[in-house]
Design a protein that fits this description.
Order of helices and strands: HHHHHHHEEH
Radius of gyration: 26 Å
Amino acid sequence: MTIAANFAPPNRTEQTLRSGPDERAAYTAEVGATRVRADLHALLGKLKDQRTIKANQRVAGDLAVQDHARWLAGQKAYEMHVKAWLADLDEAHPVVVRDVDEQHARRRAALTHHIHTIDTLALAIHTYLEDEDASEDILEDALDATLWMGADRPAVPLRDAIAQGLLPHTPGR
């Protein structure tokens, strides 16, 4: 990470960090605890990089020891605010941790769903191609019968997912 990356303008999470607890709670409700938590952990990483840069400047003699100590005190106070917000988030919005069995069951269910979707669509396409009397309704019914499950969205019929732009497709195909 370059020095310039450490001096980028603050994002909304960093700006909200400087406000009161009510503004933080409203911001967390707006963007979600996961996003805020990720931003705060990224900020802690940037602060660690800044500490390394300042320490190297002090060692090189470009920064006086007293100036470094003054800067470090401010840095520690800022880190304390970041860690306090993280602690508040952990208390109000605990991180969901799944055990290995639950993760395995979710992956297996997702795989079973994908196989079922592929089978349904393949059967509809095969029927459409092989039966000269078949209409496009077979394909449309298959698109309506299969569900697309997004990671952060409820399951929707495949046709709706395509119409909403959730799946890339070539129009007319």
